[in-house]
Amino acid sequence: MTDWQPVAATEALRQRADLYALLRHFFAERGVLEVETPLLASCGVTDPSLEPLLVTGGLPPGESRRFLQTSPEYAMKRLLAVGSGPIYQLGKAFRAAEVGRRHNPEFTLLEWYRPGFSLEQLIEEVAELVVAVLGRRAWRVFSYRELFQSALGLDPFTASLETLQRCARERVDTGSLEGGRDLWLDLLLTHAVEPWLAGQGVCFVTDYPASQAALAQLRERDGHWVGERFELYVDGLELANGYHELADAAEQRQRFLEDNCRRREAGLPEYPLDEHLLAALGSGLPDCSGVALGVDRLLMCRVGASDIRSVLAFDWARS
Amino acid sequence: MATFSTNEFRSGLKVMLDGDPCNILENEFVKPGKGQAFNRVRLRNLKTGRVWERTFKSGESLEGADVMDRTMQYLYNDGEFYHFMEPDTFEQHQADAKAVGDAHLWLKEQETCEVTLYNGTPLSVTPPNFVELEIVETDPGLKGDTAQGGSKPATLSTGAVVKVPLFITTGEVIRVDTRTGEYQNRVSKS
Lengths: 319, 190
Hints:
The complex is a heterodimer of chains A (319) and B (190).
Chain A: H1 10-29, E1 33-34, E2 40-41, E3 54-55, E4 66-68, H2 73-81, E5 87-94, E6 106-115, H3 119-134, E7 139-143, H4 144-152, H5 161-171, H6 181-197, E8 202-209, E9 218-221, E10 224-234, E11 237-244, H7 249-265, H8 275-284, E12 288-294, H9 295-303
Helix pairs in contact in A: 1-9, 2-8, 4-6, 5-6, 7-8
Chain B: E1 3-5, E2 14-17, E3 20-30, E4 38-45, E5 51-57, E6 61-63, E7 67-77, E8 82-85, E9 92-95, H1 97-100, E10 112-118, E11 121-126, E12 130-138, E13 151-156, E14 161-165, E15 172-177, E16 182-189
Antiparallel strand pairs in B: 1-6, 2-3, 3-4, 4-5, 7-8, 7-10, 8-9, 10-11, 12-13, 12-15, 13-14, 15-16
């Protein structure tokens, strides 16, 4: 028999519609402009931990592939660079091979940018949005360092690679897993710290190791370089990732090149640098903070679902 | 043998891990907001029966294991090996005591069971969920004692010992759940 029926209950579809109305109202009240940017673009991201879905057929002569966007970040930054002011986008994003209880390769992302906001101001606004959607909830902020110290009793900045490996292997059968500090930190975060966060309600985690800064600016904290970045967790479920946005075109180019270098080492395909974005940064991106929030997961929190499939009309397997 | 990447891991897929054939039970994709993705995989080692969880980097792959489940008829035990036959092809397979394991307690000649082959050789034997076996020895039955509780041990034709109600007597055939080793009901007098 063909599984033609929707996965989500009709009630979950109605909750989704309500959520979209609520989100649009939230931003309209604050004077943040809704924008729409292309889903299918000539460039994607270089981030080695993201794999794009490619469209290779039906393209005009001279074009061999287009990238389904893993987030609308680069296009939205091009709007910011011409003075769009605060903007948000509610739309689909695509990430290859991410399927599970908390992942679907095609998902809904809410991304917004606030010129003139510090990271702390943006965290405040994200917390207000969480309260608007989930009701009154207390929230707190941990630095990445405090988080590891509280959950595991180790300092992620000073612990040796051997200590990180030992801590991970005491908790998880890692077989022949190999990698650098970031791999072991990511392993501890997903396998040991996130379960601990499940008991902590609404939490923001800030000041990631500089090596995990992604597209965030760097700052010095307690003698260590950290990425001005945050993640939002609600009851252990990771919902959002925000940056004090990197605006330096030369630094951005450097990070793209390093990404491709790591891709080469890992045997992954390398991708072209988005010259449109680099040119926009070169012309001047206003100082701003931005955040991308997984809307399907936010909906999971709102309806009390533990599997993303129960809030999707048709999940990957049935789409 | 083909290799399978973590995103192809499904419940029921048989793979080679640390030199042993394993059955994948669950596969969970986990990823931090930014950074390395992992697959937490629950497996059963088909040689030892051990069930545990191993974490892989997403995109890693494992070699498939040449393991298949076949429905076969149990023929006989020659003192050293247990002999099985595929009903379609009449092909026979011999399994040692290690492969048969506890299943020998429930195997009656002509009984149909599931034999797991690894590289063509029996790796394990799963008896049917319910079997009907004759009691060869138990204490004399107590007449009229059908309502009250209480049980006694009874030895079956295969050597298995199960607890039966007091009214059951030697020579009767009973139905047993092989997963729990529990008496279900009396089938008939033999």
